[in-house]
Design brief:
The protein has 155 residues and is mainly α. Helices cover 79% and strands 0% of the residues. Helix 1 packs parallel to helix 4, helix 2 packs across helix 3 and helix 2 packs antiparallel against helix 7.
Amino acid sequence: MTVLKRRVETLNAMRMARLDALKSTERLTLETLIDAYVTPYLEIASRGDPQWRAYAQLVARIMSDERYYREAGPLYDRVASIYLDEMERLRPDSDREQLAAVLSLTVSSMVSIVASGIRIAGLSQSDRRESPMVYRPLLLDFCVGGVLRALEPKC
C-alpha cells in the first residue's frame, strides 16, 4: 500500500496542477476538465518506466475490485471529489450521483485503455502496441461525448 500511496500522490499532484492551470486561464469546460483528469494517468502509463507501467496495471485490477476499494479508494477520492465539485459548478442542473457515475465511467475507460493495449492490437490485427498517449484524443472524444450525452435531460 505504501508504494501505491506514493504513486497516487504523484498522480494527484499532476491532476491538481492541471486543474489549477485551467482555473487560472478561465478555460474550464467539461472537456478540459476531463482532459486534466485523464491525461496525467496516460502520461504516467506512457513513460516507459516499468514501475509506473506496473502501477497502471495494478490500478486496472484493484479499482474494479470492491475488496480493495476501502483501502485504495480514499487515496484517489479526495482529488476526484474536487473534480466532481468543478463538474457541479459547470453543470449545476446535474445530480451529484449522476456526475459521480459519469466520472467513474470515465476512469474505467481511462484505466481500460492502458490495460487493453494487447487486446486492441489483437482485435485490430496489428503487431504494434501503441503507447496509451496515442489513444488520448480517442479516449477524450469517447468520454466527453458520453458524459455530455448522459447529462442531457431525458424526456
